[in-house]
Amino acid sequence: MNNNKNRLSLAIALGLLGSVTSTTSMAAGFQLAEYSATGLGRAYAGEAAMADGADAQWRNMAMLTYLEGTQISVGGIYVDPNVDVNGYVDGSKSLTQKSGHTSSEDFAHSAVIPNFYLSHRVNEKLALGVALGTNYGMETDLDENFAASHFGNTASIITKELNLNIAYQVMPQLSIGGGVRYVMGEGHFGATTPNAIGPIPKGTTLKYMEGTDEAFGWQVGTAWQINDANRIGFTYKSEVKLDLEGKANGFAFNPLNPNKTYNGSMELAMPATAELASFHQLTESVAIHASFNWTDWSSFEKLEANIPSLSTPVQDIKEEHWEDNYRIALGGTYQLNQKITLRSGIAYDTSAVSDKNRTITIPETDRTWLSIGAGYEWSQNLSLDAGFTYIIAKDAPITESRGYDSDDKAQAIGGSFTGETTGSVWLLGVQANYRF
Q1: Which CATH fold topology does 8-435 show?
Q2: Fewer CB near the terminus (10 Å): N or C of the chain?
Q3: Which letter does DSSP use for residue 110 in this model?
Q4: Residues 321, 351 contacting (CB under 8 angstroms)
Q5: Burial environment of residue 93 by CB neighbours within 10 A (0 to 12, 13 to 18, 19 or more)
Q6: Burial (CB count within 10 angstroms: exposed 0-12, middle 13-18, buried 19+), residue 338
Q7: Residue 415, burial from CB neighbour count under 10 angstroms (0-12, 13-18, 19+)
Q8: pLDDT tens for residues 169-220?
Q9: Is 194 helix (H, G, I), strand (E, B) or coil?
Q10: Dihedral of the alpha carbons of 150, 151, 154, 159, in degrees to the nearest 10
């Protein structure tokens, strides 16, 4: 790793702000589900047992053995979130001595999530694949007049992932696969004073970090062809450990010289995930598919930064205490004619935090997915896919401080916050698939 890169903020951004995508796009926490427009149209139901094109390897490497010749899939998904936070700040016992209602509307940024996949069938039993996509991402900026910015006001994380995959057909009914994951990430986090505190003006930086990091992980998958009409797939992605190093500045580190920068480090683990999926061809034109997903978010308990040059090197950044997340999805495919395929799906995604541990900048809550999509066989070699999803986020309460020391320190500056988060997301994806 390059120690000159700024990496500390990536961990802080993830920890304090989780991810806009957690309530906007996608899966729980700061995890992204959007890997293809094809899967988007069925709410990503049955993905570990599906083999539409080269993109199938992202969710299950073993599905590479179901693809003929050399195939390429390329596309992108546009994410348009609408996330709001409304509530009341009680600053009567804080340094600001300011109380009142406050809100921040539509503070999650829109984004395009691109992807690229290449598969190659070496022989009847062996297949190789290359995948470029992302499993994590977010970007948020709370309103500059938001009166609880001392708990966090801006954050961003962008991850890019390269997978090198291999699959082997052990027997006609059973295939196995595996791959190496190379993850690159960058991000920032900031917190500011919500109001003037004596000579310190409103908007002064309390804490700001920015940085980058990269790490390796692995993944395995298997597919069992029960008979011609029924298939089961299972896949597991390992935890990815980031050894973060970078720089930080702000009043939290040096009240007398908030612009002074410090080198620091922090360990952060991206959680392990697993999926069990099924595919059932009911008739020549109708198929149904389902998925059960698990993410090991309970491994994310707290964040601590190590800044050796401070008198207290270990800094308690944020208590998290997340919970394992589960996702259930059911979808259907209808072959309208030789050229047109119709898709639809519904999914329910549970929150990675309890009501107690939900924060302003992690408005994480349960989500319901409603999806439709279609595919068009342009020629024998080229097909086009499109998917559309509307995500409904459950309204949920937020309270800060939650009683942890890291929260209490922020509360002493600008007061406590009690409120609610509401939100929804529109997703639109397109994809082209080419077979050589």
Answers
A1: Porin (2.40.160)
A2: C
A3: P
A4: no
A5: exposed
A6: exposed
A7: buried
A8: 999 999 999 999 999 877 788 888 898 888 888 888 888 878 789 999 999 9
A9: coil
A10: 150
How far apart, in whole angstroms, are the C-alpha atoms of residue 284 and residue 224? 21
Assign 289 to helix, strand or coil: strand
What's the CA gap between 339 and 300, in Å, rounded? 46
Listed in order, strand segments (DSSP E) in 321-408 are 325-335, 340-349, 367-377, 382-400
In the DSSP assignment, the letter for residue 362 is: B
Measured over the CA atoms of residue 203, residue 8, residue 296 and residue 33, the dihedral's sign is: positive
pLDDT tens digits along 296-331:
989 888 877 788 888 888 877 778 888 999 999 999
| Interatomic CA distance for residues 79 and 155, integer angstroms | 17
Write out the H or E segment, with its range, that includes residue 83.
Answer: strand 70-90
DSSP secondary-structure letter at 152? Answer: -
Cis peptide upstream of residue 401 (ω within 30 degrees of 0): yes
- Structural domain boundaries in the chain: 8-435
State the first-to-last Cα distance of the chain, in angstroms, to the nearest integer.
38
Rounded mean pLDDT, 358-380: 91
Q: Across-strand partners of 306?
A: 265, 314
CB 225 within 8 A of CB 204: no
Nearest Cα neighbor of 29 from 275, 266, 211, 295 is 295
